[in-house]
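for the recovery benchmark. tokens below, seq after
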């Protein structure tokens, strides 16, 4: 039934990400950072009628492509993830976070993802990471995201990505970062990508200021 059955042919993307919704504007977005180039290509997926999905570790983009329409039908992230992961034979090397238009969230970390790996969820966000220095990376992302509610979602995601990197983030460093945000139209309000840089979180913040 679902495309997820045959989607394990990707190199691991060891990274952290946040999928989020702004309760003030209804905007949806994903911010992410990784040690590999071009993190935005496979990790960040956002749709105005569905929600926001980040898929990583050994990513399966079809968890987003199949999942976003189901979220658009009003199903909860928990229900959608449970169904799609049941069809995915590579689920134990996956990591995924989902947020829907109502701000409901859920996340999954497979048992074969690289230490340190885990996730945190709350109203309006799902934060996940693997091959991190430790849980303090996710804790700092959540702290900065929750403490910046007065800002627009794109800036909150930029700050959250920067906060995660400052903790040490990925144990092998960082090369790329992305922030994608959608409002009530199908095209993105923000699609800022740093595909390869020495300090991708700093470059992400610079580009956000430029744009």
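predicted aa per position
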């Amino acid at each position: 039934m679902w495309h997820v059955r045959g989607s394990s042919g990707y190199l691991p993307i060891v990274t952290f990400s946040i999928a989020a919704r702004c309760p003030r504007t209804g905007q949806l977005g994903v911010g992410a950072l990784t040690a590999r180039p071009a993190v935005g290509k496979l990790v960040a997926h956002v749709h105005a009628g569905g929600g926001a999905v980040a898929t990583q570790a050994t990513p399966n983009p079809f968890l987003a492509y199949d999942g976003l329409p189901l979220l658009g039908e009003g199903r909860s992230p928990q229900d959608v993830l449970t169904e799609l992961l049941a069809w995915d034979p590579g689920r134990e090397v996956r990591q995924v976070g989902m947020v829907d238009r109502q701000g409901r969230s859920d996340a999954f970390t497979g048992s074969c993802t690289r230490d340190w790996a885990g996730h945190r969820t709350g109203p309006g966000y799902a934060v996940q990471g693997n091959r991190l220095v430790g849980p303090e990376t996710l804790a700092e992302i959540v702290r900065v995201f929750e403490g910046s509610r007065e800002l627009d979602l794109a800036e909150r995601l930029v700050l959250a990505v920067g906060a995660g990197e400052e903790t040490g983030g990925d144990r092998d460093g960082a090369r790329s970062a992305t922030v994608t945000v959608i409002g009530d139209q199908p095209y993105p309000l923000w699609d800022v990508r740093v595909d390869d840089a020495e300090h991708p979180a700093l470059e992400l913040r610079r580009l956000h200021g430029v744009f």
